[in-house]
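Annotators were shown the component list below and the corresponding predicted structure, then asked to write short factual statements about the assembly.
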Amino acid sequence: MNAITHPSRRGLLATVSSALGAFTFGFHAPLVKSAAAQGRNAVPEINVWVVVQPDDTVVIRIARSEMGQGTLTGLAQLVAEELECDWSKVTTEYPTPGQNLARNRAWGNMSTGGSRGIRDSHDYVRKGGAAARMMLVQAAANGWGVPMGECSVANSIITHGPSGRSTSFGKVAEAASRLTPPKDVLLKDPRNWKIAGKSMARLDTAPKLNGSQVYGMDLRLPGMLNAAIRACPVFGGKIGAMDSKAAEAMPGVKHVLRVGDNAVVVVADTWWRAKTALDAVKITWDEGQHASASSAAFAEVMKAGLDAPEAALGNRNGDARGALARATRRIEAVYGYPHQNHACMEVMNATALWTPERCEVWTPTQNGEAALAATAEAAGLPPARCEVHKLHLGGGFGRRGAVHDWVRQAVAIAKQIPGTPIKLIWSREEDMLHGRFHPVTMCKLQGGLDAEGNLVGLHMRIAGQSILAGIFPQNIRDGRDPVVFQGLNARGGEADIGYTIPHLLIDHAMRNPHVPPGFWRGVNLNQNAIYLECFMDELAHAAGKDPLAFRRALMGNHPRHLAVLNAVAERVGWGSTAAPVNGQPVFRGLAQTHGFGSYVAACAEVSVNDKGELKIHRIVAATDCGHAVNPQQIEMQVEGSFVYGLSAALHSECTVKNGRIEQENFDTYQVLRMDEMPKVETIILQSGGFWGGVGEPTIAVAAPAVLNAIFAATGKRVRELPLKHADLRRA
Amino acid sequence: MTKLNVNGRVVDIAVEADTPLLWVLREQLGLTGTKYGCGVAQCGACTVHVDGAAMRACAMPVSAFNEAQKIVTIEGLSPDSSHPIQQAWLALDVPQCGFCQPGMIMAASALLAANPKPTEAQIREEMTNICRCGTYNRVLAGIQRAAGIGTSG
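Structure shown to annotators:
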């Protein structure tokens, strides 16, 4: 994000520290507003998306949050494509949520989740770029007194063909800003794209190479104090008693406070001193009704749900129960998926400054508007008197989107110390204990085969946690959470099942533990793809059929699902024997799904040695996202999705004992590291005609492709994750 | 009072002796490129060079250092992002969110200083930093590019 050094953000200038010749970030004037807030100042905007400076620098405004997924660059490409500007002169800035509110949501939705950054805003940002281009050309034509139709534009240069005159965007920007925006804006055919659709380098790389990128944790404001916090480790518990005498006497400590009824905070001159003093506060927790809750006990609740008579309907055709009763053979399996923490590399943090008149927050957020709402509510002030400054995210993955619990805490602390900026940083332990966790579910699958081994009926009963029930309960209708069925829907175009099964029933028995759920990158597609794709493999094996052929027979009505599956099968040479690696035979497994509007498939190649040690050698992945805005960024999202998905598959789980999460840091919450990272080959199918997301869907095929390959290698079905619990030695 | 040699300058540090080097760098010296990720030497986001070797600054008290030891942070790796690792990272667009990358870059540059032509297996073994965005294959390719041994992954 170049906004940090953009002149319009004078309040966020980096200053050079004389002490070390290194960068220190002193934010001298935090309340100075950006150009977007000032509206028509010295550098006028052409429209809300585009500002052109006299030196031809093009500032493209980005409403969605950049958290590593590349949306900032992709959205800028879409605007620049229609603007016909010089890509080398493009820089970007974030409008603030307060500005969006003040200008009647001129930038639309700021929420950055569900892989929606591009797929939900491509149309209006391209129109913004196109409208700005038309106004710039009109301004030039007006200046020359010629018809606009005689002018052409490329690379920020406007040319009048008949006279040979030319000018640049920067020279006509001021005049263009005073024109009435055009009503009819035509967009380019993507086949004619020159900037969009190309693997442009990211716009935000340089400051990430030398330590100068400011993340939320790195913010420094004049007079700022630092806060460390500890909430009751048992969800729903409260502070019983606390003795803070020793802590208050420790170096640098300014305040020991309560936040609500469940958290203790120490405010000190530095964070390390705050954290050290917090460790010295003696806290007795009133752990409440969940003090003895455990994962084992909740598993029994879910198990009962697998056979419960009542369940919410997700997808049905025909009579699955009847077909199962009539089937020649019936196959049954139960799978499970644990709680997991997002474990963003940057822990939750926010800086808040509260006065009776105004509240400002600086924080990494996936949804600036939700952060503003949380700020206003916690501040006890109307949103118009609050502001949120979005800072760069050290990872989001869904943790920093729907719920802004850390923002509420920071504001609640700042409200107790009016006029002093307070930077709240969670410890990793706090981050692990107080996540918004991947929902925990189990699934019982029953499939019926006829005498020829054809699948005639399938019942998928999901039992377990609903994210919506925990976060947006108003979206639960008649006890049904529609998001639970991600990837299993009959239709909708966003997350549909890729098989036509004569008799099908998919339903959900909602069972919610006390652990708060969250949207965890990939959301419910993650477990649903494991359940369905691993069971498809089980059915194929039971039918004595090849897993690819078995699937293909059910996919005739689902050509896009089939196309990505075929693409990976062809690339690996499915049906041939994989070449051994280091003397170990290599086995393959397949998976496909549809989610976030994109079609994805993977083939994993693995070996398992005599000790039961798994090695994942290569994964070939295919994605059809319709229009591909930046192929290199899509490849990076696919690679990253395997790291996230394989971390979950191999290592990561959060278990509950005595009401609290047991895993407090990366020593017990292990994730994938480089030694386990397979080679990834990405195939991007660009079938066009639609816009799918790419940040999340591929995660869902990581685990089932590997689990199916493990079965091929060992004859063992692993139905509970993570894999670290499984004994993979051949039976 | 502790004297430290950081990025070529000797500075006086007045903090409690058990303060981790990480927090001295971030809070006393304003060198926020070195990141807090875990505090228990697991993730490597806090990696700096001490006399050229990679060290995780979050788990080392400042009292363990003296001014004879040369501490280099990401801000001091090169004056203009010209270190071969930084250049390779730029060429391959390695970072995603970028939060772990200062630690990755410091670990990778120390690796090449000790072993200019590492094998792929050595890189995979030595580079134990955590990246949640999943840049591992590009980190691997970046190290190989900087080492002039071709790219893969």
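Statements collected:
1. The radius of gyration of chain B is 15 Å.
2. DSSP finds five helices and five strands in chain B.
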